[in-house]
Amino acid sequence: MKICFDMAYDQGVAPLGVGAGQAKIGELNIGIQGLIQLLETHLGMTGQDIHHAMRIQGYMQAMETLLDKKGAAFFKASFESDAWSSAKQMLDWRDELVDLEVRSCFVESESVNSFVYLPFHDLDEVG
After folding, report:
1. pLDDT tens across 100-113, in order?
2. Cα gap 60→16, rounded to integer Å
3. Residue 27's beta-bridge partner residues?
């Protein structure tokens, strides 16, 4: 199999020089998302894809449960001003921390712990 990779394939537009009717058997034209899916499939790492908006909604609900608790003070004003954007940003940060394996670290900050550890159980099953 020949893999032709170009970031433009994920944009819904073929890269320059690629025209209609140029598909070939045994040749795969993919972007970064296609490459990730191909590698996940070949490595047996596929799972259910959950839309990012659903994950944000879940994180927003999890953050709501913390609003009246002591450690929520650092995000309370932002959350009350714009819950969706706050949840999106915190989820993005949380995902970065998970990627960096912060779970194994001991952090002596109640605010960081409330933000990092709160929804691990629920959101890891979702996404």
Report:
1. 765 555 555 555 55
2. 41
3. 2
Q: pTM of the entire structure? A: 0.54
Beta bridge partners of 30: 5
In angstroms, the Cα distances linking 122 to 38, 41, 103 are 27, 24, 15
Pull the structure tokens for residue 81. 């001003």
* Domains identified in the chain, total number: 2
Q: How far is CA 93 from the centre of its chain?
A: 10
Residue range of the domain that includes 11? 2-43
Give, for 36, the enclosing helix (H) or strand (E): helix 32-43
Same domain, 10 and 59: no
Q: Residues 110, 115, 116, 117: what is their CA dihedral angle, to the nearest 10 degrees?
A: 70
Residue 88 burial (CB count, 10 A): 18
29 backbone dihedrals φ, ψ, rounded to 5°: -105, 110
